[in-house]
Amino acid sequence: xxxxxxxxxxxxxxxxxxxxxxxxxxxxxxxxxxxxxxxxxxxxxxxxxxxxxxxxxxxxxxxxxxxxxxxxxxxxxxxxxxxxxxxxxxxxxxxxxxxxxxxxxxxxxxxxxxxxxxxxxxxxxxxxxxxxxxxxxxxxxxxxxxxxxxxxxxxxxxxxxxxxxxxxxxxxxxxxxxxxxxxxxxxxxxxxxxxxxxxxxxxxxxxxxxxxxxxxxxxxxxxxxxxxxxxxxxxxxxxxxxxxxxxxxxxxxxxxxxxxxxxxxxxxxxxxxxxxxxxxxxxxxxxxxxxxxxxxxxxxxxxxxxxxxxxxxxxxxxxxxxxxxxxxxxxxxxxxxxxxxxxxxxxxxxxxxxxxxxxxxxxxxxxxxxxxxxxx
Length: 376
Ligand SMILES: *Cc1c(COP(=O)(O)O)cnc(C)c1O
Description:
Blueprint lengths: L4 E6 H14 L4 E5 L1 H6 L2 H5 L7 E4 L2 H9 L6 E3 L6 H9 L3 E4 L2 H9 L6 E6 L11 H12 L4 E7 L14 H13 L3 E2 L3 H6 L7 E4 L25 E13 L4 E2 L5 E2 L4 E6 L16 E4 L2 E6 L7 E4 L11 E5 L6 H8 L3 H5 L2 H4 L3 E3 L17
Parallel strand pairs: 1-18, 2-3, 2-9, 3-4, 4-5, 5-6, 6-7, 7-8
Antiparallel strand pairs: 1-10, 10-13, 10-17, 11-12, 13-16, 14-15, 15-16
Bound molecules: pyridoxal-5'-phosphate (PLP).
Pyridoxal-5'-phosphate (PLP) binds next to helix 9 and strand 9.
């Protein structure tokens, strides 16, 4: 055994999730959102398994070029557009689709000598108030772009500020955008994962799906939503028990001594901590799964160690693998809730810490393998 932490990706689940979105938005093209190294799953791990995707949506030009190098030839939507003329030239060369969301970008597009035609989506500002044009400006901008022979306007785009909060309506921004799209007669792209699930009227011609693709619950607080049952977790994180400790009543464990045993407790030490990507803010009580049984972490998570209560699993041994998240019985959103984070906050950056193991068909996860540990 080379490592005490294992991160696996179930690519069958990924394809299943993509196909599920396709079935839920049958009139739309489904673009897989791969920003931030595919939400910490690894850009090519994900893209190579979605060769049949209608398109991809990204932020960094470098990532788009990587997709083209790997011979993925479908539309690639650059959700932030380009930053300078050099990037624009590359976008032309590789047939990328650009979001246009600032005057600066329009000036670059108009100044770029015509070399074929480039597809653009005009971004309309939502209440995020970050990028895009105000609805009143859009008609004028469309007129300018339509007049340029080397620019093809694919449609209007918006991004929801709070579709992930089920206690809030999709709101006035959505009504205003819809009216604008109708008036212009152009196709539109609005839905992220949450909006796609909530309201079919947001589907338009392209839905941009991130969190659902990875099997995450896109709703704030991990709120229940019927259609979510159809999605499966792609990433599983597991850690090994590297030691055990017996606590007597009154004894603390871990840095800071935040946990004190109220009775005799048999404790497992896992070879994994925040340095390995487990959230440091996860508190005592956060669930883990061992031999199919849920138990809990206790004490503070350290850089490369954390503690779990072995009382519910008396058969547990040093060498056993423990599932930290990514099982149907232990969803990453539950860890997020305990840590005050979203699933995506936990996942982003994990590719920098781990080589993801790609799970082949019928291959078991570590925690589901028969234990190969020698008898003590
Ligand atoms: C990240 C992102 C998405 C995907 O959002 P999810 O909620 O993960 O589905 C869609 N559109 C834009 C503009 C984004 O930045």
